[in-house]
Amino acid sequence: MKKIALFTIVALTVSCLTATAQKQNKKVMKKVLFVLTSHDKLGNTGEKTGFWTEEFAAPYYELADKGVQIDIATPLGGQPPIDPKSEDPSAATADTKRLDKDTEVLAKLKNTKKLTDVNQEDYDAVFYPGGHGPLWDLAEDKTSIALIEAFYTNKKPVAFVCHSPGALKNVKVNGEYLVKGKKVTGFSNSEEEAVGLTKVVPFLLEDVLQSNGATYSKVGDWQPYAVEDGLLITGQNPASSTLVAQKLLNQLNLKK
Description:
Layout: H1 2-28, E1 31-35, H2 53-64, E2 69-74, H3 94-101, H4 103-110, E3 113-114, E4 125-128, H5 142-153, E5 158-161, E6 172-173, E7 176-177, E8 183-184, H6 189-194, H7 205-211, E9 215-216, E10 226-229, E11 232-235, H8 241-254
Parallel strand pairs: 1-2, 1-4, 2-3, 4-5, 5-11, 8-9
Antiparallel strand pairs: 6-7, 10-11
Helix pairs in contact: 2-3, 2-8
C-alpha cells in the first residue's frame, strides 16, 4: 500500500513538473515576422540598394538568442537585395560577421516567404529592418500596409528601424494615420543629407512622419536612439537596431 502511495506521489510530481516545463517553454517561444524589402534600385543613380545588413543581423540575433522564433518575408519572396554599402568592411559589426558565417540564417534569407502568404495570426509581433529599399516598395505595398494594420489592431507590437518607418507612410487605423499623435523616430533629414541622398529618395522620412501627424524626435547623427509609444517601436539609424530589438523583446516578455 505504501509503495502504491509513493508511486502515486512520484507520478503526480513528475506530471506537475512536466506541465510546468511545457508552460514555461510555451511562454518563451514567441514568434516574430521580419519583413525585408525586395527593391534593389537606388532611384535613377544606377546604383544598387536593398536592406541594411546590420539592421537585420543585430535584431535577429538579439531576439533569436533569447529563444524567439523568426520567419522572414518580402514582397517578392526569395533572396532580398542587400545594400552593397552595408557589406563594406567599414560597416561590419560583430553581428554582421556572425551572419556572414551563419549558413542556416543565410539559407532562410535565400528563401523568404512572400508577404501575400503570411498571416499576422501566426506571429506575436512584426519587425521591419531598414535600408533605403523600403522607401520605394514597402511604403506603397498594399499587403505590407494591411499587415501592419492587422498586427497593430490585434494588439501586437510593430517595430521599425532607420528607413523602415517609411513602411508606415500609408498605414491607417480607423481612418487616421497610425503615427498620428504617436512619438516616433527614424532616419533623420540631416543623416540623409550626410549620405548625399536627399534628392534621390522618393521622400524624406522625417518630413513624412511629421506631415502624418507624428511627434518626431531624434538625437545626433548616427547615435543610438529608439522610441516606444505603446505597441509602436521605432529606431533612428543602424546604431539603433539593437535598442529597438530590446524594446520589442521586453514587450514580448510581458505578453502572456
